[in-house]
Amino acid sequence: MDNRKIPFSALTDSLSEELMRRGSEEAYREGFSRIELRTDQADPILWLKAQPWKEKIFFESRGRGEPVVAAVGNILELNGIDRAGEEELLTLPEELIRSGMKMFGGISFFKENPNSEEWRSFGASRFVLPRFEYIIKDKKGYFIINYRNYEAGTGNIKKLLSEINSLKPIPKPEEGNSGKVCFRRYSPDIEGWGKMISTYLDRIKRGDVEKMVGARRLELDHDGKVDPFKILSELKMSGDYTANFLFTFNGDDFFLGATPERLFMREGDLLSAESIAGTSPRGKDKEQDDIIGKDLLRSKKNTLEHDIVTEDIVKKIDPLCEMAAISERVLLKLSGLQHLYRKISGKVKKKKTDWTLIDVLAPTPAVSGKPLKKSFDILKKEEPFDRGWYSGIVGFAGKDISDYYVAIRSMLLRKDKIFIYSGAGIVPGSDPEKEWEEIDLKIKKYKKILKYEN
């Protein structure tokens, strides 16, 4: 990496010069290369919005100081749930490993092609190696171009240089609102919700399943002026302990959200997963907040729900890891909610691909139910909408580190419609009306951003 700091205004010239310098050396080698330049620190969301590519990705892992990645374009794509393809993806080609590249994407909840038209551009699974990445790390800016080596050859380099020259500068922030929205429908509506949750409780009582998860979709119409990048920016500015993401592969359909739930992170052979379940609101002051938190920790219903999720993850991780450790149950406090939380970590016994780990761990009972197959069968029959990537997986695959999250607290924005998703765990003692109130609480942040009121 060139450690000189290149101003944003000079990036295109510097990238072109470096590419021309390297081109003759790399053009006849197989594989991939990347050029990384230090540059100004600016707003990556504003940069992302300005670029003329259909494929756009934003990803920020949960935690303070994590790199923020805004990316456009696509030079390598792997999609579908073809096991051979996924093994190639999540072990990563050797050329990508050497250059430190990462692929970003997601997997649908059912790990199969969604049935509905609104999810068609996302598919069952889609991971891409972007053309350009703008990264903020440790309060420094970095700009990256990824390319196949043959693209730097004499006959191909003009196209690559043209793409570099099409990069747009970072615009000034726009003032004003983010469009107008109006209510269309709940799916299921409140009556249908009551019937669905009663069905789940009946199946639990009969012993068919131990736990279910009820999900709901709020559908809104909008005037075509709702800005997904502004929504993302406001989610990010809320300061919650969440992973923030946005994916669009056609420039029209945007899946974005702020999820608190990590599926797992792999650093070398060290694996850490999380169990999150149970929900209560935050208090108006510290005293009330502490009382609500203590009640949540003592709640029979919520601790049962959390134990089911934790035990399932531990059971799945145990054969894969040695020295598995489970933290004490604590509270995960977000801006408007608090949850029960435990961390499960271990050292992977043998080299496992990310896909093997995903296949074993996802989805957890926190978003599906237990046992998985029976809960899947029930969900497919009872839920009146297609989850698509909601409650599926989003993240990135790399050699030294991979990080994947459960895609909850999320929404799908289309040209004239918005779908906002939320869900609640159903165990003995669950009350349909209280669960409806809980899932309303979980999307309160989106309603505020969109200036939507019931």
Explain how this protein is built.
- The chain is an alpha+beta fold.
- Helices cover 31% and strands 33% of the residues.
- It has helices at 11-26, 44-50, 83-91, 94-99, 157-165, 190-205, 228-237, 286-298, 300-317, 354-361, 372-382, 432-442, 444-449, and strands at 2-6, 32-39, 56-60, 68-72, 76-79, 103-107, 125-129, 132-137, 140-148, 181-187, 211-222, 243-248, 254-259, 262-267, 270-281, 321-326, 330-333, 337-348, 369-370, 393-397, 401-406, 410-413, 417-426.
- The strands form two sheets. Strands 1, 2, 3, 4, 8, 9, 10, 11, 12, 13, 19, 22 and 23 form a 13-stranded mixed β-sheet that branches.
- Helix 1 runs antiparallel to helix 5 (157-165) and helix 2 (44-50) packs antiparallel against helix 7 (228-237).
- 43% of the residues are buried.
Mean pLDDT: 90
Number of separate helices = 13
* Percent of residues in helices: 25-40%
Largest sheet: 13 strands, mixed
Percentage of β-strand residues = 25-35%
SSE topology:
Layout lengths: L1 E5 L4 H16 L5 E8 L4 H7 L5 E5 L7 E5 L3 E4 L3 H9 L2 H6 L3 E5 L17 E5 L2 E6 L2 E9 L8 H9 L15 E7 L2 H16 L5 E12 L5 H10 L5 E6 L5 E6 L2 E6 L2 E12 L4 H13 L1 H18 L3 E6 L3 E4 L3 E12 L5 H8 L7 E2 L1 H11 L10 E5 L3 E6 L3 E4 L3 E10 L5 H11 L1 H6 L5
Helix pairs in contact: 1-5, 2-7
